[in-house]
Amino acid sequence: MMLERKVKWVGAAELLPVLLILFVFALAYLPRIDQFGFYKDDWHMIYNGHAFGPNRITDSFLIDRPMMGRLNSLTYRILGDSPLAWSLFAFAARLEGVLAFYVLLRLIWPRLRYPALVMALLFAAYPGFLQLPNAATFQNHFIGYGLALTSIALTAAALRLRGWRGAALTALALLFTAGYLLIYEYMLGLEALRLLAAALVLRPSAQDAAPPRPWKKALGRALIEYLPYLAVVLAFLAWRLFIFSSDRPATNTELLAGKYLAAPLPMLAGLLADALKDFAEALWMAWSVPLYNLWNTARPLDVALGLLLGAAAALGVAFYARRRPAESGWDGSEPPAPRGWAGQALGAGALSLLAALLPVLAAGRNIAFQDQFDRYTLHATAGVGLLLGGLLFYALRPRLRAAALALLVGLAIPAHYLNAVYWSRAWEVQREFWWQAAWRAPMLADGTVLMPLLPKNYRLAEDYEVFSAANLVYHPAESSFRIYGEVLNADTAREVALGVEGYRFIRFFEMTRDFKKTLIVDWPGGGSCAHFIDGARLELSAQSDPLLYWVGRYSQIGQIDTSAAPPRPLEAVFGSEPEHGWCYYYQQADLSRQRGDWQAVIRLYAEAEAAGLAAQDAIEWLPFYEAFYTLGDEAQAALLADRIRTDSTAAAGYCRLSGPRTSAAAKALCD
């Protein structure tokens, strides 16, 4: 049987494509990997694991994805609190999926090494999914996707080997199928790729050595071979639909079914419209929209570095094509439109892409190149690689094909680099904020609702990003949950203004937050420090969010316990203490002002001045101004008052909103 023929992959001819894949993948994902940290959903998992133990991570996912909880618990036991360890693990898990996809392609079309490389490069460089830096959250996506692709590759290998070896590979493939479905149910659409891959293996193309089998027979044979996998899928669906009940609305199948039954035609029409939109987004817009969005906010130097990395990747691709004419058809020996395997790749890619998207769309989710909603492109990348690769070989002559591939890869790498710049900067902002918090607030009272407003473009999205990190800073050695948190926006500002109490339950964290105990922190960015707001006297920067002019007055500075010893943020999580720049002296001075220790404020001013440090935000001179005025140094106080007045917006806001008549220093500044 020709299907039992072994595919021999040895020597430099096979090694070079793999090295090129590794080269492009490294250019996409390794830059700045040592500067990534914890973000969004990472936080509640890391806090649960550190404070309550890995078993708490398992329990926290029982409400929606139990297998994910077990997987996260296991990885936490191994990786611990190190952001770099999580990033490297996520990189390795994602790379395993890339290599599994390349092996799958070689199994489907054994003699087409270069086309397999082209499709694998498009898969590896795909710029429509940019969540790898969010490593602790998305490593389970990469593991699940890698399991799925490995399982499908094992299916293809089993069809080629047969006998006891084929049976062993089939058993392993079935195990991996159950594994990836239990991790992420919405990847179910990948089973279409398995069925198509089986049909392609069973019906060799004109480029293969075996005689082609009619499509009808190939598909019938593939369906028979698929029956064991169908049994696994049906068993999973029976458990997911009829046995397991999700307490999370987004993954509750009963709620979803109710929506379709209530309005079937509108729901189906919306599903069709979303399918067309997301198909185009995943296939084509992914190569332009993310890069455009990132380029708009990037520094010119970062753009230049990204383009250089993209050029390096493009040159590597072009060099390989030039050096391997027999494979690439660069010499013109290849037919201009090979309508055999390329047509197969086009059809399989389009069907796989659509099948991957449908479960996501049916659940009411769709692709968006913002926040984390590009995650739904991840498991669609196999279909994208097949479809785009088939299109390049179907429609373009060799030279144009090589140029188009180099262009696509060259555009993808800058998107990944600029994305890495953004994520590394986001972690730098978080780290700096929590160190400033440690300098300014030695301890927060139990029940404090901490509401930080970080610089624009780096603001936190969920409350657990606040309370997880805050408890790790202030109570790292305790299995306790004593500080609450919330993000500040128009909705939560209303709760603060009303002083209401609100119940909240998220991933085993249960709390009743009293918004009369709110402490707001404003960090406008642009050279400013984080400002812990005292509602009794508003000191807002000219760059502060206008929302703070309304809600800032409700901030309770008394939630800070000024008598406590300063905390030491966990170095494993937050890194070593930053160099003591201006913000260190400002935070220490503001703390000393709250304590009424004016001599300490004067001493800190002298130390900052000796170090050549100065405020970039005029409002940050206030603690020092008040110290000099209170201690009778009118000349120095007048000098600092003039510096504050240079920012007329900040000075006017302070004088009109802070009740300046409450102190002689304030009256002198404002008169």
Protein architecture, described:
The protein is mainly α. The protein folds into three domains: 2-245 and 263-424, no CATH class; 441-578, no CATH class; 580-671, Serine Threonine Protein Phosphatase 5, Tetratricopeptide repeat (Alpha Horseshoe). Helix content is 62%, strand content 4%. It has 28 helices and six strands. The chain has helices at residues 12-29, 42-52, 54-60, 66-79, 83-108, 113-125, 135-161, 163-183, 191-202, 215-243, 253-262, 264-283, 289-297, 300-323, 325-328, 341-362, 381-395, 398-440, 464-474, 490-498, 547-551, 571-574, 582-595, 598-610, 622-630, 634-645, 648-657, 664-670, and strands at 449-453, 484-485, 501-506, 509-514, 518-522, 531-532. The strands form two sheets. It has a four-stranded mixed sheet with strand order 2-1-5-6, covered by helices on one side. It is elongated, with a radius of gyration of 29 Å. The model is unreliable at 1-7 and 328-338 (pLDDT under 50).
Query: Overall mean pLDDT score?
Result: 90
Q: Ends: how far apart?
A: 97 Å
Please state the overall shape, judged from the principal axes of the Cα atoms: elongated
By helix and strand content, what is the structural category?
A: mainly alpha
Given as residue ranges, the uncertain stretches (5+ residues, pLDDT < 50) are: 1-7, 328-338
Query: In which range does the helix fraction lie?
Result: 55-70%
Number of domains: 3
Radius of gyration: 29 Å
Strand arrangement, major sheet = 2-1-5-6
Helical stretch count?
28
The number of distinct β-strands equals 6
Strand content: under 5%
Main β sheet profile: 4 strands, mixed
